[in-house]
Design goal:
heterodimer, A: about 230 residues, alpha/beta, Rossmann fold, six-stranded mixed sheet, B: about 180 residues, mainly alpha
Chain lengths: ~230, ~180
């Protein structure tokens, strides 16, 4: 099947089941989906509807039982673990609900950590981390440990880590789930700015309907299936 | 690349102050005591019981190293999962864990060497001043220390194999689960 060059991610007939306590749970059911390069996509739905599973499958963190995931022209549904690691390092930035910063590293080190296994020189890594911190307005906190930062600052630090390698896609799983309304607005505004300025494709999974105003495309899910796309 | 990860592993280890201090103290004590009893076994003091103690200390060091490796992987599961999420391979994470384990062991060895200088000076002073004449004071040569260190390093390799197996099993998806889930 020919892939449109503007297509960033395409899911074709994707199915995923889990076995839990003897019962089979259909987490994803015949998912067909196209996300274009530079789109801001929000995946919404109630808890347990399969939106996080969809995010996991689209990023190669989990494999579908059947179907294809074409990521930037490559089917990642059957890629090796090392290949998936390389794709994630080069093309994907992750933002987590619980921030997942390494507690023993400062803000700048947490951001640089993504680039440690690369061939970049230390100075270049530091420069990129500083630039990422500046992009999220957190430069003054560069030597602070996660424990010394507020929730909003931690998430902005997580956001800086997600953009330091200039990825093509940012995947955010409930990025504002642990934030107050003011920090939520800051984080979402930053995601929108990154989307506009860097033309990065953004996929945000959330159960908050109020965030849909940020999106170019809203995917509503229920019981593992896509209910509507608008 | 691996060298940079080892350097960063040292940085991370030094910042885990409590665990690092506890393990470095235990390693230092074990290396010192094993060297002392090996010296006693070489010189024939204490008879066969010295060799028995050496074996016990090696056994304890094996258990301790396995425990340290297990703690490094298990306590930081979320960190390793996050690093896998952002693109670290198993081999990259193994480099970090290897750096942590070997740094702690080497530092323990270096501290023992430092302690031996003070110990030797102390024993020399007590003997020359004819103090504590009833207590047999033993000087430790460098050879028992080196003979102690080699098996200690071998034990770390066993611990590393355990850590590598456990790291391989850490799934990156864990990073996306909520804390406590």
């Amino acid at each position: 099947m020919p892939i449109d060059k503007d297509t960033m991610i395409e899911a074709i007939d994707v199915n995923k089941e889990y076995r839990r306590a003897g019962a089979i749970i259909r987490a994803l059911s015949d998912i067909n989906l196209t996300i274009k390069s530079g789109e801001f996509v929000i995946v919404q739905g109630p808890t347990g509807c399969g939106k996080s599973t969809l995010l996991n499958v689209l990023s190669g963190l989990d494999l579908p039982d059947s179907g294809k995931i074409i990521f930037d022209g490559e089917n990642i549904a059957r890629a090796t673990e090392d290949r998936l690691s390389k794709i994630r390092r080069q093309k994907i930035g992750f933002v987590f609900q619980d921030f997942n910063l390494v507690p023993t590293l400062t803000a700048i080190e947490n951001i640089s950590a993504l680039l440690w296994p690369t061939v970049l020189r230390e100075k270049e890594i530091e420069n990129r981390a500083i630039a990422a911190l500046r992009d999220v307005n957190l430069l003054e906190r560069k030597d602070h440990y996660p424990v010394q930062m507020s929730g909003g600052e931690k998430q902005r630090c997580g956001l800086a880590r997600a953009i330091v390698h200039r990825p093509r896609v940012i995947l955010a799983d409930e990025p504002t789930g642990n934030l107050d309304p003011e920090s939520e607005k800051q984080v979402m505004d930053l995601l929108k700015k990154i989307n506009k300025d860097m033309e990065t494709t953004i996929i945000v999974v959330t159960h908050r309907a109020s965030l849909s105003s940020y999106a170019d495309k809203v995917i509503s899910m229920e019981k593992g299936a896509i209910q509507k796309i608008k | 690349m691996a060298f940079r990860l080892w350097k960063k592993a040292i940085l991370m280890t030094l910042r885990e102050k409590k665990m690092f201090t506890v393990f470095i103290l235990i390693y230092t004590s074990l290396i010192f005591l094993t060297s002392l009893f090996m010296q006693l076994a070489f010189t024939g003091n204490l008879g066969g019981i010295a060799g028995f103690f050496v074996l016990i200390f090696f056994g304890v060091s094996l258990l301790l190293s396995l425990l340290y490796a297990w703690i490094i992987v298990a306590r930081n599961r979320r960190t390793w999962a996050t690093l896998k999420c952002i693109g670290y391979t198993n081999s990259d994470i193994n480099s970090l864990v290897t750096g942590k384990i070997f740094f702690t062991t080497f530092l323990g060895f270096l501290i023992v060497i430092e302690i031996l200088f003070h110990y030797t000076a102390g024993v020399g002073y007590l003997q020359s001043a004819n103090l504590l004449t009833g207590i047999p004071l033993v000087l430790i040569d460098l050879i028992p220390v080196i003979f102690t260190f080699i098996p200690f390093l071998a034990v770390q390799i066993i611990a590393l194999l355990l850590a590598n197996r456990k790291i391989y099993k850490v799934r990156p998806i864990i990073a996306l689960k909520k804390v406590g889930e």
